[in-house]
């Protein structure tokens, strides 16, 4: 793997584009969730189980991280979009709830095999500017979150819910393009024969990091999942159209892409922990504000909320990748497991709260719970300072 301190922008942008292509299809579920709830006559909790299904394979991430470094990891980045696009384009066609869950499980497996190696590739091409590289990578994902809702809502409007399978060829063509783009890029195997041990030691040495990250991710995830999974449903319940919900989700994601772009580079200069603390304090305040605004003020608050809520991604990812270790894929696998498990459990909690107290109260509760992430950030900052001494 390349060790140059140079920032290889062309390679970083190529991998970020692969992230964009993959995640466009990954985010088809939330915008059409109101239609799926109606089609299958399911509760909010059952709807949350759909998101849980696509995230459940994240439990494989540490094992993927342990062994994926023995292979040419670029091929996982190339072919995962084809699998993801096929499974997600078929969710509108699914004739019953069980098959819908199965499609989302397939997507979750493909998602895991993409997201574990991709940041490792980004690190290898970012040199000394890991934060900047992670920002580029995360922007690809956030732009996908922005366009994904528009694409799927447009497809449903044009072809109906059962016509979404027509989107499959676009994803397959993207994987073919990625193969031509990446076939001449050399990424060395991360794990040599001599370095295939030491995973337990790596985990033990960084256990404190993952415990504190787990607290941060969990309490922020409840708030984040309430917005990402149920924003269109929340707006539909307040009298808005499906298109209004899709556009609102896209506005939120565009703002998130901007926040993601600046946060990583800012953390290279200001410091990871200072940047993370600002984000952690401000984000729940924007959610509480969103609950109370009306009319035209919805969109400015959505912009603020998206900017801060999604900005933590590249900062946390860069923090993990900064650690001196031979096993970056394994470290990222643990981190991705924490991320997806936190999101999965949070999705179920949000669904239960939505059934019990309604989405408006759920948004308020999730914002107050997000403040509990602040002590974890403070403790993490203290541990980071001790390591530098």
Polypeptide structure, described:
- This protein is mainly α and 389 residues long.
- 79% of the residues lie in helices and 0% in strands.
- It contains 18 helices and no strands.
- α4 runs antiparallel to α16 (328-357) and α11 runs antiparallel to α17.
- The longest helix has 31 residues, at 207-237.
- It is globular, with a radius of gyration of 20 Å.
- It starts with 8 loop residues before the first helix and ends with a helix.
- The model is unreliable at 190-196 (pLDDT under 50).
Question: Keywords, please?
Answer:
389 residues; mainly alpha; 0% strand; 18 helices
Indicate the percent of residues in helices. Answer: over 70%
Structural class: mainly alpha
Please work out how many helical segments DSSP would assign: 18
The whole-angstrom Rg is 20 Å
Biggest sheet details:
none
Provide mean pLDDT, rounded: 83
User: How many strands in all?
Assistant: 0
Low-confidence stretches: 190-196
What would you call the shape?
Answer: globular
Strand and helix layout:
Elements (H helix, E strand, L loop, with lengths): L8 H18 L2 H12 L3 H12 L5 H7 L6 H16 L7 H19 L1 H10 L3 H30 L8 H15 L16 H7 L1 H31 L4 H29 L1 H21 L5 H12 L2 H10 L6 H30 L1 H12 L2 H16 L1
Overview in brief:
With 389 residues, the protein is an all-alpha fold. The chain has helices spanning 9-26, 29-40, 44-55, 61-67, 74-89, 97-115, 117-126, 130-159, 168-182, 199-205, 207-237, 242-270, 272-292, 298-309, 312-321, 328-357, 359-370, 373-388.
């Amino acid at each position: 793997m390349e060790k140059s301190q140079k920032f290889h922008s062309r390679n970083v942008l190529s991998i970020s584009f692969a992230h964009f292509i993959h995640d466009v299809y990954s985010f088809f579920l939330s915008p059409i969730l109101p239609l799926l709830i109606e089609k299958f006559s399911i509760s909010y909790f059952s709807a949350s189980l759909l998101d849980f299904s696509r995230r459940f394979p994240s439990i494989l991430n540490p094992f993927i991280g342990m062994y994926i470094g023995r292979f040419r990891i670029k091929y996982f980045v190339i072919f995962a979009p084809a699998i993801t696009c096929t499974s997600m384009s078929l969710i509108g066609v699914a004739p019953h709830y069980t098959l819908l869950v199965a499609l989302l499980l397939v997507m979750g497996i493909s998602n895991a095999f993409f997201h574990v190696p991709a940041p490792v590739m980004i690190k290898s091409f970012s040199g000394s500017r890991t934060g900047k590289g992670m920002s580029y990578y995360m922007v690809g994902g956030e732009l996908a979150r922005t366009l994904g809702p528009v694409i799927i809502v447009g497809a449903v409007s044009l072809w109906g819910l059962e016509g979404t399978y027509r989107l499959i060829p676009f994803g397959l063509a993207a994987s073919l393009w990625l193969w031509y783009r990446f076939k001449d890029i050399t990424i060395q195997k991360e794990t040599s024969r001599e370095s295939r041990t030491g995973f337990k030691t790596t985990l033990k040495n960084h256990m404190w990091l993952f415990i504190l990250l787990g607290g941060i991710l969990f309490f922020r995830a409840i708030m984040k999942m309430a917005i990402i999974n149920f924003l269109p449903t929340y707006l539909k319940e307040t009298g808005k159209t499906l298109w209004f919900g899709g556009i609102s989700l896209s506005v939120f994601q565009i703002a998130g892409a901007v926040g993601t772009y600046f946060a990583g580079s800012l953390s290279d200069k200001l410091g990871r922990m200072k940047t993370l603390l600002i984000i952690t304090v401000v984000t729940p305040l924007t959610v509480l504000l969103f609950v109370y605004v009306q009319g035209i003020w919805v969109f400015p608050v959505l912009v603020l909320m998206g900017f801060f809520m999604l900005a933590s991604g590249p900062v946390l990812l860069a923090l993990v990748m900064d650690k001196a270790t031979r096993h970056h894929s394994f470290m990222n696998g643990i981190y991705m497991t924490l991320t997806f498990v936190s999101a999965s459990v949070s999705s179920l909690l949000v669904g239960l709260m939505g059934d019990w107290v309604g989405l408006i109260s759920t948004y308020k509760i999730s914002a107050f719970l997000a403040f509990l992430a602040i002590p974890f950030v403070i403790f993490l900052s203290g541990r980071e300072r001790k390591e530098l001494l």
